[in-house]
């Protein structure tokens, strides 16, 4: 798959995840600087909204849209935005935008999500844009890698896939 950022080809580190794969466990960092561990979400439907930085317009739209949609989903669904922004910036963003239905985690310290899910752009050390949905059994049910990182994800398709799993 060819991924571009502003028209320039980028290289994704790791192996790109596919539908049907067992979702790899990973560590990241919460806004309070404590560790997040994906295995703590076993038995839930998990939506990973992946973005380069919440300080850009398209990333902000992605985070706020999934936050709004999270209110319409069942309690079995966890929506997480993941970027490599520092937790301080993520916290400031969530406070300013009123994000309280979805959470945000950072891959800045470990970069395990980026490498294990194949989203880390080697040249920029940012995450490519996309969505990964993991079902209650820990299997990947949906994946989108946005071919041009500056474009939006397909919200309708992601929400349709979440609906199928609820």
What is the approximate shape?
globular
> Helix fraction?
10-25%
Question: Low-confidence parts, pLDDT < 50 over ≥5 residues?
Answer: none
Number of helices: 4
- SSE order, one letter for each helix or strand: EEEEEHEHEHEEEEH
CATH H-level superfamily title: Glutaredoxin
Q: Could you please say which CATH topology applies here?
A: Glutaredoxin
Radius of gyration: 14 Å
**Class per helix and strand makeup:** alpha+beta
Please name the CATH architecture: 3-Layer(aba) Sandwich
Give a short account of the largest sheet.
Answer: 5 strands, mixed
Strand content range: 25-35%
Keywords:
two-stranded antiparallel ribbon; single chain; 166 residues; Glutaredoxin; 5-stranded mixed β-sheet; alpha+beta; 25% helix
Can you describe this structure?
- With 166 residues, this protein is α+β, with helices and mostly antiparallel strands.
- It has one domain (16-165): Glutaredoxin (3-Layer(aba) Sandwich).
- 25% of the residues lie in helices and 27% in strands.
- The protein has 4 helices and 11 strands.
- A 5-stranded mixed beta sheet has the order 7-6-5-10-11. It has a two-stranded antiparallel ribbon with strand order 1-2.
- The longest helix is centred in the middle third of the chain and has 14 residues, at 57-70.
- It starts with a strand and ends with a helix.
- The model has no long low-confidence stretch (mean pLDDT 93).
């Amino acid at each position: 798959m060819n991924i571009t950022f502003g028209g320039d080809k980028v290289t994704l580190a790791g192996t790109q995840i596919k539908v049907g794969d067992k979702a790899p466990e990973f560590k990241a960092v919460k806004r309070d600087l404590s560790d997040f561990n994906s295995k703590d979400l076993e038995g839930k439907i998990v939506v990973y909204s992946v973005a380069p930085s919440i300080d850009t317009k398209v990333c902000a739209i992605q985070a706020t849209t999934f936050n709004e949609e999270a209110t319409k989903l069942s309690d079995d669904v966890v929506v997480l935005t993941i970027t490599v922004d520092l937790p301080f910036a993520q916290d400031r963003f969530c406070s300013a935008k009123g994000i309280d239905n979805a959470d945000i985690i950072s891959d800045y310290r470990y970069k395990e999500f980026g490498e294990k899910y194949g989203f880390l752009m080697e040249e920029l050390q940012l995450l490519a844009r996309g969505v990964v949905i993991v079902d209650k059994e820990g299997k990947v049910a949906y994946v989108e890698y946005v071919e041009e990182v500056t474009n939006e994800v397909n919200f309708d398709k992601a929400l349709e896939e979440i609906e199928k799993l609820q």
